[in-house]
Amino acid sequence: MAxxxxxxxxxxxxxxxxxxxxxxxxxxxxxIIGGVVDFAIMFQRYEVVTNAAREGARVAVLPDFAxxxxxxxxxxxxxxxxxxxxxxxxxxxxxxxxxxxGPSIDVVTVTVQYPHQFLLLTPLAAxxxxxxxxxxxxxxxSTMRLEIAAGP
Length: 152
Fold this sequence. Notes:
Helix content: 40-55%
Order of helices and strands: HHEEHE
């Protein structure tokens, strides 16, 4: 059976249309999936950094522990969680805070930083000219009350 055509108009086949649509949509879909994976990894690392700061603060409020012990605990927690890149030493600060209408309390704050590089988005960004946010510093702090005299 012959195809019906109108004068001046040519009917074309739709063969291959799905392949063309896939070629257009697949890179966009892969970019979205890569972004979701990268941000999930970053969020997991941020949670590890937060927990490492909390572990450091727990050690800091114990009696007879020095700043080196706190740093060792934070670094061992990071290493046990798979974060092995070189991170700046955790900052430990002993301070007193005044409470409204009451006595001041002694607290310790442990701040942990860890460098994070996106695994999938950084190489893709480099293909189109890069960007200033290829590496970011994940930062978390934990403050706990000292029940005894302030540390060193």
